[in-house]
Amino acid sequence: MIRGSSFGAEGTSVGEIVFNTSITGYQEIITDPSYAGQFITFTTPEIGNIGVNGQDMESSKAHCKGVIVRNYNKRYSSFRGEENLDSFLKSQNIMGISEIDTRFLTKTLRKEGTMMMVASTEYHSAETLSEILHSSPRIEDINYLDEVSTKESYIHKTGTFDISQFAYSIQKESKKKILAIDFGVKRNILNELVSAGLEVEVVPSSISSDTVLEKYSSKEIGGVFLSNGPGDPLQLKAEAEMIKTLVKESIPMFGICLGHQLLSIANGYPTQKLKFGHHGGNHPVKNLKTGAVEITSQNHNYSVPKEIEEIAEVSHKNLFDNTVEGLIYKEKPIFSVQHHPEASPGPHESNYIFKEFVAHILK
To answer: Where a domain ends, among 97, 122, 141?
Structure first.
């Protein structure tokens, strides 16, 4: 049992604990829907120093279970800051724990692997906390799509952030319309798709394959984007079946993270859980087509099997552990990447992939 100081929401919460090695962008990380059901351990020791603002939200609310930090700074300093992290977490009902030896915790997770944890400001005995933890469902048993996916379709209008104006750009014209299936999509992925020249209709994860096929056959859309999202992809059987139908019909598709994994499952190649996942903005990925090494942003606990090379060409490879980072499917207008080319936070060396998607559907 580890003791720390509480900030943010009070109460008791159970979730999966992971660590993130990014040195900037704690707000974008906390509001990434892919962290639903997880506690985020920040390896960067100082968190909270720039506060929180409305522009840097990656979704309408935060979905993680909590954040674990070495030192929380209640007093922030940024002309863009609107409130401190403590008040933000309280408003989102998310726990914060500070004064933790996050270096020790990260080394433990690297050695032992990702695990479930319980945090509480109410209960203090190890026996009680153990009972709560072992009576709670594991993250692999939970489908988070009802929590993170949009309930209604909408057109996403904004493009990427214009640093000269400190505002998001607005779409003026588009080359083609696509559907973005929302499994927990990050706002900046949608911004990149818009800035690449696409009209983006965001639709619920429950959309039927018949609806997608009708829109494609009528030439209303030119392709489909499959978003990132939380949880175990093997839980999403209905979604994988829907994608399987779209694959059979050879609809142009592009997937990121969970979308990449669901494409693998839909093609008959189940995903595998990594020991402690990839979470951070410093992961080297080799582009096997150009030979370039790109520093990428990552957030996932699962990977696709190497056997998928039977039906797809591996376009990108992770240089930390040689896991598959990108695929181009043979004889199908479909490709996907495991990493996050939109970053936010992180480097932007891979955002050319969005332009490749546009070229892909304009062929």
So the answer is: 141
CA dist 169 and 300 (Å) reads 29
**Catalytic: 340?**
yes
Judge if 166 and 311 occupy the same domain. yes
Whether residue 134 has pLDDT greater than 90: yes
With a cut of 90, say whether residue 225 has pLDDT above it.
Answer: yes
DSSP 137: P
d(CA 15, CA 29): 16
Active-site residue identified among 16, 192, 325, 342: 342
Asked if residue 93 and residue 224 are part of one domain, the reply reads: no
Domain range holding 335? Answer: 145-361
The Cα 74–Cα 50 span in angstroms is 10
- Residue 310, sorted as left (phi over 0), alpha (psi -120 to 50) or beta, turns out to be alpha
Residue 176 confidence (pLDDT): 96
CATH assignment of the domain containing 50: 3.50.30.20
Mean per-residue pLDDT over the chain, rounded: 97
Counted domains in the chain: 2
Q: Which amino acid is at 299?
A: N
Bridge partners of 115? 17
pLDDT digits (tens, 9 = 90+) for 227-250: 999 999 999 999 999 999 999 999
Q: What are phi and psi of 95, to 5 degrees?
A: -80, 150
Chain-centroid distance, C-alpha 8: 23
State the CATH number of the domain containing residue 158. 3.40.50.880
Choice among 257, 278, 316, 339 that is catalytic? 257
Report which of 303, 216, 299, 300 is spatially closest to residue 265, judged by C-alpha positions.
303
Pull the structure tokens for residue 340: 């996050």
What is the pLDDT confidence band of residue 327, given thresholds at 50, 70 and 90? very high
Integer CA distances (angstroms), 198 to 42, 74, 158, in order: 35, 40, 11
Residue 127's identity, in one-letter code, is E
pLDDT band at 310 (very low <50, low <70, confident <90, very high): very high
User: Which member of 63, 260, 340, 360 is catalytic?
Assistant: 340
Indicate yes or no: pTM above 0.85.
yes
